[in-house]
Structures are given as C-alpha cells and as structure tokens.
Specification:
Largest sheet: 7 strands, mixed
Strand order of the largest sheet: 3-2-1-4-5-7-6
Shape: globular
Distance between the termini: 33 Å
CATH class: Alpha Beta
Order of helices and strands: HHEEHEEHEHEHHE
Number of domains: 1
CATH architecture: 3-Layer(aba) Sandwich
Number of strands: 7
Radius of gyration: 17 Å
Bound molecules: S-adenosylmethionine
CATH topology: Rossmann fold
CATH superfamily: Vaccinia Virus protein VP39
Structural class: alpha/beta
C-alpha cells in the first residue's frame, strides 16, 4: 500500500501552508478533543509520536507531562522539550511507560503503520489510551476532479480495524462535514499545496475553481484502550 513520503526536512513551506490553511479557513482539529480526553482521564505521561512542531501540547495544561518523538530534525527543532529523534516503529522507551500515546496525522507516512501501532501498545500502561487520526480516502470530494491522494497505508477506511488488531476496545469519532471554507482562489491554491500538489500546478488548478468553496472534510479520530 502506498504511503505518503514525508517532506518535512526539505519543504517546510508546504507544512507552514498546511498549518496556515487550517488556522485561516478550517474549523477545529483533533488536538482539543484529544487533549480534553487525556486531561479528563488524567493520563500521564503522554507520548506524542510524530509530534511535529508540537501542536498537541499547546492544548494540554502547561505542566502536563508530555514527551515528543519525531523522525524529522527540522520539526523537532521547533517542538517543545523533551522530544527525541526516533522512528515510530522503534521507540527508545521501556514497556508500559505512558498513560497515553498519540499518533496524530502521521501514520500514513509509514509503509507499515501497523508496526507503529503495535509499538504504541507496548509503550502503554494497562488501562492507557492510544489516539490516532487520519483522513478518509473520500476527503475533499469538491476538489476530487483536480487531485486525489487516493488510498494510502493508513486512512479512515483502514484505521479502526488495524488498531483493533492490537487494542482491546476501539471507539471511532468520524467527521463528514463542510469544515473548510475557502474564500478565494489563493486559498484554494494553498489548500491544494498543503495536500501535496506542486505549487505551479496548484496555482493553475485553483484558477479553474469557483469560489467561495466549502470543502467537505472526512476522517476519523480513533481512541483505543489497552485494557488492564
Ligand atoms: C503531518 S505531520 C503531523 C505532526 C503533528 N502530529 C501534528 O498533527 O501537528 C507528520 C509528522 O510525522 C513525522 N513522521 C513521519 N514519519 C515518521 C516516523 N516513521 N517516525 C516518527 N515520526 C514520523 C514527520 O516528521 C512529521 O513531523
């Protein structure tokens, strides 16, 4: 199954564009519901796999024990501390050392995401919570005629079953709603760039789109429990 090749060490502009599009034109993300659940259940410490530049910890209380892990030195340099340079499939922590383990918007970068899911289970204490998010292969249908990421190694259609093979109970929160409002063609271009379309092609594609455009977002946030 195809994975999405990480570009964070050679195209930070694309990542900046993703974040900026979300902040300017999106309505919410998975970070607040994930942080709320961690705090409500007093799950400490948190291991944030593929932490990037640290969007999740901004939603946690300041003193909440959090550890980041990421394979990109460029992203890690911008993340809060402590954060370690490590691959999601072999993490340098003892068994059962975390109350929560998250893998938000990252498992589709792996050709073998299930190895990382198994690793997350190893690191969780009994009773601990694993949280992962991803898009549906039918995300953004209004722009499907211009681009499609297609089926990838960890999408909403695959995620619950894959996680269920390693965890004892799995709850899936789905969304399917016009959550992104693109006011003009520049916004459409930025949205497409964030979705891995080369800039020049995105500029040209955006010029064919009627704006404003509401984009339907489809995906899942999966909460999985390691039972005692
Ligand atoms: C889309 S970003 C998401 C970052 C963060 N979780 C967020 O939602 O803001 C994906 C992150 O996963 C990291 N990543 C990709 N493959 C990885 C791997 N095999 N092990 C650890 N991190 C990885 C990338 O370096 C990048 O920081």
């Amino acid at each position: 199954m195809r994975h999405i090749e990480p570009d964070y060490d050679h195209d930070q502009d694309r990542w900046r564009t993703v974040v900026s599009v979300g902040e300017r034109f999106g309505s919410g993300d998975v970070f607040q519901p994930t942080a709320d659940r961690i705090v409500a259940e007093k799950l400490r410490p948190v291991l944030d796999i593929g932490c990037g530049d640290g969007r999740l910890p901004r939603h946690l209380p300041d003193d909440w024990p959090w550890v980041g892990a990421d394979r990109s030195p460029t992203m890690l340099a911008q993340a809060p501390k402590p954060a370690v340079l490590a691959d999601a499939r072999t993490l340098p922590f003892p068994d059962e050392s975390f109350g929560a383990v998250t893998a938000l918007w990252m498992l589709y970068h792996l050709p073998d995401p299930e190895t990382a899911v198994a690793e997350a289970r190893r690191l969780l204490r009994p009773g601990g919570l694993f949280v992962a998010s991803t898009n549906s292969r039918d995300d953004s249908p209004e722009l499907r005629h211009l681009y499609s990421i297609g089926q990838v190694s960890f999408d909403a259609e695959i995620a619950p079953e894959m996680i269920g093979r390693h965890f004892d109970s799995v709850a899936v929160h789905k969304w399917d709603a016009p959550l992104v409002h693109l006011p003009d063609r520049d916004a459409v271009r930025d949205y497409l760039v964030g979705r891995f379309m080369p800039r020049e092609k995105a500029e040209q594609a955006a010029s064919t789109v009627q704006t404003p455009l509401d984009v339907t977002k489809r995906g899942v946030l999966v909460f999985a429990r390691r039972l005692p």
